[in-house]
User: Fold this.
Amino acid sequence: MLSKRALCIQNMQENEHIFACPICSQHVRVGNEGSVVCTSKHSFDIAKQGYINFITKPVQSMYSKELFEARHDIISSGLYDELQTRLAELAVGTHLLDTGCGEGSHLARIAAKKSSAIGVGIDIAKEGIVAAAKFHPGFIWCVGDLAKSPYHEESFDAIFNILSPANYDEFRRLLKPEGKVIKVVPHEGYLKELRQQVFANSEKESYSNEQTVVRFQESFSNVEVERLTYTKQLPQELVPKLLAMTPMGWHIEKKSEIVLTEITVDVMILTGRSE
Ligand SMILES: C[S@@+](CC[C@H](N)C(=O)[O-])C[C@H]1O[C@@H](n2cnc3c(N)ncnc32)[C@H](O)[C@@H]1O
Ligand SMILES: [Zn+2]
Assistant:
């Protein structure tokens, strides 16, 4: 069986044409031994855990290994199954990029619903990508900054941006002409049972997506907006995981006093095309 590093090298070689140097935008070559070098000789490392690091200077992230492992447990419990099913229906083509992919479970579970998908995930947090490579070998996991993304223009059929910061100029550059951008933003009921306990009677309890939708409409064509809402039972043992997976949970002093029996997913899904 191939090691995780060898599998990553193989996947990158097969898809070498999508990679561009994040420093000089030139083409990169992926050698059999795992050297990744651009035409101007900038070089990047493929880690033994099976991911590639395109960031030359370390970046301080607010997200920890514990947060990503908690997200993994919550996503594995099936809380986002309905969302992933819808995202797989909306996706087109084979080359899928998840921007701000975190620990990779959304992309892995969406790709599993598509035939011959090639899944690429990028996140600036190394801890997220390390977790993604650990949980989901067989995808191309990249530590990288969306502002200097390591891909050539027109490389992807579908670009996901799930509960993460976006870079619309970059999404337009990376989309194939027929490609689709698919963005998920939390809506007013998202994790409301948790928010009601954390921010009871405070202004933080409600927010609006109006500005996000307007900016998205200004940036893409053929924009469609839909809302997906559902509530699921939350097994008791997952409550600490839910508190650990979102910055909201960090504000709670007496975590043991939080009682949650069900939890709501309420999101807006925005889709658009680059032209
Ligand atoms: C709230 S988390 C969501 C992670 C994942 N999409 C999920 O739903 O579980 C936001 C993610 O965006 C990533 N991120 C923030 N800025 C980024 C950037 N400039 N480039 C790449 N990723 C970024 C963070 O590191 C973090 O993993
Ligand atoms: Zn270069």
Summary: The radius of gyration is 19 Å. The chain has one domain: 4-273.
